[in-house]
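Translate structure to sequence.
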């Protein structure tokens, strides 16, 4: 079962996460960004990893897990908070469909090549969005 991303659904999931972490102010700030940016930023969930375009560098994709992120923020970043929101919804048995999906692609087996891969991919993505 799939459901579309909507602001109300993202806020609902964000609220559930806050309930479980009532005193974590840095997580709350990350959730504030994540619940908005999941509507405005292309992302893809695959194999427990969230691939999401950087808000400040649209030519970069960050990969977030529950314990870390390629943006190397010292605290919980909004990418990790976004993963928690998507995972909270998927825990209900419903797969969240991105508002702005990253095009389907074969998951890299070798993340050492990720930079070259992201560069190629984003060149294609720009062409893809112009031709829409
Ligand atoms: Zn991050």
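Result:
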């Amino acid at each position: 079962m799939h459901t579309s991303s909507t602001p109300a659904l993202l806020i609902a999931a964000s609220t559930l996460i806050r309930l479980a972490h009532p005193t974590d102010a840095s997580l709350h700030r990350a959730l504030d960004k994540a619940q908005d940016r999941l509507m405005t930023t292309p992302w893809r969930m695959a194999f427990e990893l969230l691939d999401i375009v950087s808000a400040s560098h649209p030519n970069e994709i960050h990969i977030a897990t529950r314990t870390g992120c390629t943006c190397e923020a010292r605290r919980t970043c909004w990418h990790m908070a976004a993963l928690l929101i998507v995972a909270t919804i998927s825990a209900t048995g419903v797969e969240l469909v991105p508002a702005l999906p990253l095009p389907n692609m074969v998951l890299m087996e070798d993340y050492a090549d990720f930079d070259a891969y992201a560069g190629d991919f984003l060149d294609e993505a720009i062409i893809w969005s112009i031709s829409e």
